[in-house]
Amino acid sequence: MACSYCARPASSDLPYLFVWPGPGHVLGKLRQAISSGRLAADPLPGGRGLRLSRPAAGWTQVADRLQELLTPLELQETRVLTGERATPDADGHERVMQADRFCGEIRGHWLSELLDQERLTTWFQPIVDRDRLPFGHEALARGLSHDGGVIAPQAMLEAAATPQLLARFDRLARLTAAGAADRAGLPGHLFVNFVPSTIYDPEQCLRSTVAAMTRLDLDPEAVVFEVVESYRIDDMEHLKRIFDRYRAHGFGVALDDFGAGYATLEALVHLRPDFVKIDKEMARRCRDDGFCRRLVGEIVRLAHEEGIKVIAEGIEDRAGFDLLREVGADLFQGYLFGRPAPLPAARPACATAARARRAIAGDCLSAGSRGAALTPMSGA
User: Fold this and answer.
1) In the chain, how many domains are there?
2) Secretion signal: which residues (predicted)?
3) Which of 40, 155, 251, 332 could serve as 375's disulfide partner, Cβ 3.0–4.6 Å?
4) Edge-to-edge, what's the strand order for the sheet holding 97-98?
């Protein structure tokens, strides 16, 4: 039986929504909104709940209104249920969810549909060594719109407004990356991004991911799992357990965006990754900032003492490459060596995807993010 984090999302086409507010004052707020015309709803028998009919514009309109009327805490304490009859189903308790989850899933319905239809693809950006020889590639998720347009990963991450939806996106992105790399027969190392908060139990949740990589005949020593750059490291011990689990199966681990955001010296000391990626903005500042250059040089020295390889990101010209190579970086990634791009498949995608899907289908994941609208992307 799947855990709640892997459960199917709220249906966006059922005709009724039943709402049971948490604290008493929340019901009062909703009744006031009904009397003022801001919300259309009828009381349920007993007076403790409300029934809303699906508007012509869809449930997104209701989700927007609920988020306007209630605070985040009030949304968490309010329960909702979608149904096809005018009274709640007797067995519908298994589908009851928090109102904030309902709002997030409805607002991210386009992403849920995209994941259902597996309209996710992988682009690859090369990583080279100090002699500009190929070392590997980073796998980068891209969505596909109905008309074939490309959807930026940030738009999908922002639309993954619930732990459940982010978990589904993260899982399918990893699956798609593995399948694409296998089809293309990429040489060298494969860097695969992951969101640590989607992995609530490393031993259980990574079991089928490892099985997928094994069944696709990908060499574990050539696969590196990389923390997504936007991830906030709130629980260092949890992330260390994830790293340890990956390493136990022979995979490498990498810390991205080092020197900016949430990737700090504390993370480097505590996690001891196999690779650390210097933040692209920090790499650029090395050109004109002597202190920054010395700081990066010290990071490189400390990393090398622990056997950690340093990757410099955002290298766009020869001068930047020469400077970071002089500072001591081992590997390099950036437009100078290649922009993210799709690769042609070496064999039919359906067979590889099906094998990987069977291997990874049991992942149990959870996560969190904020919602946003669909945004097409034409660039890298």
Assistant:
1) 2
2) none
3) 155
4) 42-43, 50-53, 16-20, 79-83, 97-98
